[in-house]
């Protein structure tokens, strides 16, 4: 009999922020100490319930605290959550344990407690090096706060740090974006995520910059956005970062293992308000209703709603369109091993068409987007839906 456990990723949602940013549509908001304590109790109950039901055959190789701003919680509470995870699941000795943190919420003491609790990777939400852009975004911090947090994190021993950036802000020029990139890269964080702003419905930004608004024209156009994207790859490439996913860059060996779980089809379990999972052939989401979550977190059947039963067809589609986000692209041999069907039989036509158009290229076993294909990635990926 073998004891081999299946690797999974674990996501923990911490829905608290000091203040809501103007562009944010994440499930997050300000909360008092009592709400935070109640939430922690519910979260620990959910983790324990899942451990009793699902813990046995799995090994967590990554844990990711996202939000919200997990760093509003003190080290002691993060420690409690990790302790409960270790009781419920086998958490690998060398698991990557990431915590999102915002400048303006960190102190030396907090950071050393996070480390002592087992957090070994920090993801800092900087977004821009320009104070006027940070104000526009409604961020709680300045560039100076970011520098302070970054150095404090290094002093606390964090040797794996991601910095999140956002481009294509209203009124932003390519020159201003390049300065943000250069200053960030000069600090040599191990990882940089650089996404373009999406103006989401329901946010204050949507009223100010959404379709038909007076500010709409301030948003960089598609061509300017593409130019910023190309400069990102170029500048960060020169600074030693490899683009390993459409919007993610890492120093060698410092790719985010948790995100790679999502992109390579490794199952993951999400805990907390509104958290999503893809596990044992299903996608499901936790309730986003605060009262319902606090009341029912121990009863997984009441907290979770199945959103999709994964079929072979949806798994094949996902294998392709998530795999194509990666710079290495998809491994056609692995497709055949996983689905017991030749890749060409399912996707031969699409592959030939896009290779001819110069949007996809074949590299040995792998099929990947070309530079031109990255510009049109959404259209290409859509064609992989069966
Ligand atoms: S800190 Fe992040 S999660 Fe919180 S409001 Fe701002 S963008 Fe949203």
Automatic annotation (TrEMBL):
Q: Report the locations given in the UniProt record.
A: Cytoplasm
PANTHER family for this protein: COPROPORPHYRINIGEN III OXIDASE, RADICAL S-ADENOSYL METHIONINE DOMAIN-CONTAINING PROTEIN 1, MITOCHONDRIAL
Q: Cite the NCBIfam families for this sequence.
A: hemN_rel
Originating species? Cuneatibacter caecimuris
PROSITE patterns tied to this protein: RADICAL_SAM
InterPro entries, per the entry: Aldolase_TIM, Coproporphyrinogen-III_oxidase, Elp3/MiaA/NifB-like_rSAM, HemN_C, HemW-like, rSAM, rSAM_sf
UniProt lineage: Bacteria, Bacillati, Bacillota, Clostridia, Lachnospirales
Query: Radical SAM core domain: which residues?
Result: 2-242
**What is a biological process (GO) this protein takes part in?**
porphyrin-containing compound biosynthetic process
| The protein's role, per its UniProt record | Probably acts as a heme chaperone, transferring heme to an unknown acceptor. Binds one molecule of heme per monomer, possibly covalently. Binds 1 [4Fe-4S] cluster. The cluster is coordinated with 3 cysteines and an exchangeable S-adenosyl-L-methionine.
- State where it is primarily located: cytoplasm
Name of the featured protein: Heme chaperone HemW
Please provide, in alphabetical order, the Gene Ontology terms of the cellular component aspect for this entry. Answer: cytoplasm
Q: What Pfam families does the entry give? A: HemN_C (PF06969), Radical_SAM (PF04055)
